[in-house]
Design brief:
By secondary structure, the protein is α+β, with helices and mostly antiparallel strands. The protein is built from 10 helices and 8 strands. InterPro entries: DUF421, UPF0702_alpha/beta_dom_sf.
């Protein structure tokens, strides 16, 4: 393998050389993404989106074109990443100067037509986003805000909000996450003991479903409301 052609590109590169170039470029993309942090993964602003689109386009060209320079591709990837990190830093210092601002699309239960037109949001777009938020009736909504990253936030009217345990004077339950007890036939001993449970309790729960052995179960999960979810 001729290293100059490998790094600078050549139409005579072998398949092995193309594979190695693609692996190197992929690793560079991973490092650059790590450098840009969680903000880039979420694409929270306009410049984050442009960097992501630019890097993906650049990587695709370098991966499929043997005549393109691998070195220049890697340099551009990290230049893009550096510019993105700089703009993200400036965005935290002067958000009004770098990024877009939230736009109110509904206030006091009334749609703001001028803001909808300014943001190019159609009624179908808006209703689709609301359905994804579980808000199906405009009459139940007080405020809608279009966030800078393209998603909407919804504030429902007080009378449309669900009743909470506090409002019903019920005892509060500690916040928790569902816990896996068995996965693919293997008991998670750490989770089981952290919950203060034992094999006897677990086998009893399995027996209630007609299951005699943990090896016959794909997933057992203890949910936050105390329900034991079992999937064979």
């Amino acid at each position: 393998m001729e290293w100059k052609s490998f790094w600078e590109g050549s139409k005579d590169l072998s398949t092995l050389a193309l594979v190695i170039r693609a692996i190197i470029l992929y690793i560079a993309l991973i490092v650059a993404t790590r450098m840009m942090g969680h903000r880039q993964v979420g694409i929270l602003s306009g410049h984050n989106y442009l960097v992501a689109a630019g890097i993906v386009s650049l990587a695709a060209v370098r991966m499929v074109s043997p005549e393109s320079s691998l070195i220049s591709g890697i340099v551009i990837v990290f230049v893009y990443a550096g510019v993105n990190v700089l703009l993200s830093y400036l965005d935290t210092k002067w958000p009004r100067g770098i990024d877009r601002q939230p736009t109110v699309l509904m206030q006091g239960g009334r749609l703001l037509k001028a803001n909808l037109l300014d943001c190019h949001v159609t009624l179908d777009n808006l209703l689709g986003q609301l359905r994804l938020k579980g808000a199906h009736n405009l009459s139940e909504i007080d405020t809608i805000v279009l966030e800078p990253y393209g998603k909407i936030s919804v504030v429902k009217k007080p009378e449309a909000l669900p009743v909470t345990r506090k409002q019903m004077n019920l005892p509060q339950q500690p916040a928790a996450l569902p816990t896996i007890l068995i996965y693919d036939g293997v008991i998670d001993e750490v989770n089981l003991h952290q919950l203060g449970l034992d094999h006897k309790w677990l086998l009893t729960k399995l027996g209630e479903q007609g299951i005699t052995s943990p090896q016959d179960v794909f997933l057992v999960m203890l949910e936050t409301n105390g329900t034991v979810y079992i999937s064979v």
